[in-house]
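Below is how a single chain appears once it has passed through the pipeline. First comes the sequence as given, then the structure the pipeline wrote out for it. We keep one example in the README because the format questions we get most often are answered faster by looking than by reading.
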Amino acid sequence: MSHRHLFSRLALVAGIALSAAASAHDYKAGDLQVGHPWARPTVPGQPSGGAYLSIENKGKTADKLVSVSSPAAKSSEIHTMSMDGNVMKMREVGSIDIKPSEKIAMQPGNGYHIMLIGLSQPLKLGDKIPLTLTFEKAGKLEVSIYVEDKTAGKDAKGAKDGMEHMHH
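Resulting structure:
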């Protein structure tokens, strides 16, 4: 094998390894695919935070997310949020049914999310927090929640500057 051919093979292997690392935010348990668990940073003294992710059932049978837990919080709960007129209503749900071919997208603003209650320390940008998802059929799945600053169309600096201007 020539050096050039060997180098191109190594480059291909490195490229595959890099693309696998880039999708390390995805996890699998049985037929369930869990995508990009993340949470927003919290401020010191904030007792709880929300975590978000997606769950897709790629199988032919339904499953159910029955519990969540994290050592970063005293308790973790599955919540749903909805708007009733101008009133935001949040309540705990015991579980989430995931039908075959269904994708549940937990995101800020509406729908399901995970509440981390009684945080042991603030969630800081760049942190990775362990979370265990327990499914009725697929069993336990360990994931990492990445603490990211996902603001609505603004970077962290822009949002912060806007707040500072409002207070002058």
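The helical segments are 3-22, 156-166.

See the next section for the split statistics.
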